[in-house]
Specification:
By secondary structure, the protein is mostly beta strands. Helix content is 0%, strand content 50%. The mean pLDDT is 97.
C-alpha cells in the first residue's frame, strides 16, 4: 500500500513554468514505477509522462514532449514533473500514480496499469 500526495499546482500564464511534486508514503518508493496523468473538464484522463523504478527510463505523451520532464528521487520518496512553456491546453487536474508490478526499467502508460493514485492538483494556464 502507498499513499500519494501531489503538490505544486497553481495558476500560471502561458509560457510559464510549474513543478509538480508527488510524495509517497508506505512501501519503499523504489518499488514503484510512477506516472503522471491529467484530466480536463469533460475529458478522459490522459497519460502525460512515466518513469521507471530506476529513474533511467522515461516516456512522454507527444503533446508534452520537449516541454515537460519527469524525474524522481527515490531517497526522498518523490517524483517530479517539471512543466515549461505551458499552454492553455495544459489546463487540467494532474494526478500522479504508482505501479507496483513492473520491473526495474519498465514503464506503463495506461491508467488501468496503475494501482495507486493521488488526489490530484489543479494546473490552470491563462492565455
Amino acid at each position: 500500500q502507498v499513499q500519494l500526495v501531489e503538490s505544486g499546482g497553481g495558476l500560471v500564464q502561458a509560457g510559464g513554468s510549474l513543478r509538480l511534486s508527488c510524495t509517497a508514503s508506505g512501501r519503499p518508493f523504489s518499488t514503484y514505477a510512477m506516472g503522471w496523468f491529467r484530466q480536463a473538464p469533460g475529458k478522459e484522463r490522459e497519460f502525460v509522462a512515466a518513469i521507471s523504478r530506476s529513474g533511467g527510463v522515461t516516456y512522454y505523451a507527444d503533446s508534452v514532449k520537449g516541454r515537460f520532464t519527469i524525474s524522481r528521487e527515490n531517497a526522498k520518496n518523490t517524483v517530479y514533473l517539471q512543466m515549461n512553456s505551458l499552454k492553455p491546453e495544459d489546463t487540467a487536474v494532474y494526478y500522479c500514480a504508482a505501479n507496483s508490478n513492473l520491473r526495474w526499467v519498465q514503464i506503463a502508460t495506461k491508467p488501468i496499469e496503475y494501482d495507486y493514485w493521488g488526489q490530484g492538483t489543479q494546473v490552470t494556464v491563462s492565455s
